[in-house]
Specification:
Elements (H helix, E strand, L loop, with lengths): L7 H13 L14 H18 L17 H7 L5 E5 L2 H9 L13 H21 L4 E5 H6 L1 H11 L46 H7 L4 H8 L9
Helix pairs in contact: 1-2, 4-5, 5-8
Length: about 230
């Protein structure tokens, strides 16, 4: 028996060495993984979810670090589906930088570190897309903003669910929201955050430089001029 704590999937991975009876921490203990351990972990996780929503057809886990663990997620849940939502790289990093994340995200308070982390995230996602046995749907944030219904329908279909017009009125839900986006989910989709980075470009030199081609070329393409500000 084991407990997941507050971060269900992250807690699950933390219990893996104990389930395997090894002192080798995750992920290095993956070499010792057996089907019996996978079954124990997956059933334990599903029982925890059932306590929260026993009648749900689908449950979404949107923890930011899930992208690090898609390999073991595919082993644990072979029927899972991955939704990968991408956004303008500079807007993504700026949004992260402006939020008070906890110490589990030590890269978030340094622009240069954010750019480096973002590139490694892209590299890892390219790897997962080439080897995963579970399907991955990639959605561009800006495309969703521009055509909400089209991409919402694609997402719902990908999840194997029937379309419901209430998906377009998500902001009307009374469910509790405890993430940093608690205010945004109470409003209809809006466009003012697209290319938000342009308001701060003179301060984003370290980030844009760290992003390399993802940053410098992007700024030139969208503004017609190289970025301003000091490089790291």
């Amino acid at each position: 028996a084991f407990e997941f704590g507050d971060l269900f999937l992250q807690g699950l991975f933390a219990t893996l060495p104990a389930v395997l009876g090894t002192s080798t921490p995750y992920p290095r203990c993956m070499d010792e993984l057996k089907q019996e351990a996978l079954d124990e972990l997956s059933q334990g996780y599903l029982s925890v979810l059932a306590n929260f929503s026993p009648t749900a057809t689908r449950i979404t886990d949107k923890m930011p670090h899930n992208f690090l663990n898609l390999g073991i997620i595919a082993l644990l849940f072979p029927n899972a589906r991955v939704i990968h939502c991408r956004r303008d790289p500079i807007d993504t990093c700026l949004s992260i930088y402006c939020l008070p994340f906890n110490t589990a995200h030590p890269y978030t308070d340094n622009l240069a570190h954010l750019g480096t982390y973002y590139l490694q995230y892209l590299r890892l996602m390219d790897h997962w897309k080439s080897v995963l046995s579970i399907p991955v749907l990639e959605i561009q944030y800006e495309d969703l903003i521009g055509d909400q219904e089209r991409w919402s329908r694609k997402l719902v279909e990908f999840c194997g669910l029937e379309w419901d017009d209430r998906c377009l009125r998500f902001h009307e839900t009374k469910r509790n929201a405890s993430t940093h986006s608690y205010d945004q989910v109470r409003r209809p989709i809006y466009k003012k955050s697209v290319a938000r980075w342009k308001n701060y470009v003179q301060h984003l030199g370290p980030l844009i430089a760290a992003l390399g081609q993802e940053g410098v070329a992007h700024v030139k393409d969208t503004s017609g001029a190289p970025p301003q500000g000091d490089a790291p």
